[in-house]
Amino acid sequence: MLLEALSAGILGLALAWIAALRLPHRLPARMVVLPTGVAGALFGAFVTHTALDAAGLLPVLLGAAVLSVASLSLLLRPAGRLRGRSATA
C-alpha cells in the first residue's frame, strides 16, 4: 500500500509538472497546479484500491492517473477570449 501511494504521488507530480510546462497560459500558478495533481492522484489511488480490493499496482496507477488528469482539467481556463454575443442580438 505504501508503494502504491508513493507511486501515485510521483505520478501525479509528474502529470502536473507536464501540464504546467505545456499549458502555462491556461493554468493558474504552479504552486496550485502541482499539489492539485498530487492530491488527485492520491485520491484516485485510494478510490481504485478500495473499489478493486488491492487488484495490483497497475490498475491503481491507472486510476490515479485518471483522477489526477481530471482534477487538473478543472483548473484550465478558456484558451481564447470568450465571445460576448448574446442570443437576442
Continuous helix count: 3
SS content category: mainly alpha
Morphology: elongated
Looking at the chains present, what oligomeric state does this protein adopt?
single chain
Q: Helix-strand pattern, N to C?
A: HHH
Integer-rounded radius of gyration: 16 Å
End-to-end separation in angstroms reads: 58 Å
State mean pLDDT (0 to 100 scale). Answer: 89
The biggest sheet, with number of strands, parallel, antiparallel or mixed sense and barrel status, is: none
List the domain count as a whole number. 1
List the helices and strands and how they pair.
Blueprint: H1 2-22, H2 30-52, H3 57-73
Protein described:
- The protein has about 90 residues and is mainly α.
- The protein has one domain (about 1-75).
- It is built from three helices and no strands.
- The protein has helices at about 1-20, 30-50, 55-75.
- α1 runs antiparallel to α2 (about 30-50), α1 (about 1-20) runs parallel beside α3 and α2 (about 30-50) packs antiparallel against α3.
- The longest helix has 23 residues, at about 30-50.
- It is elongated and about 50 Å long.
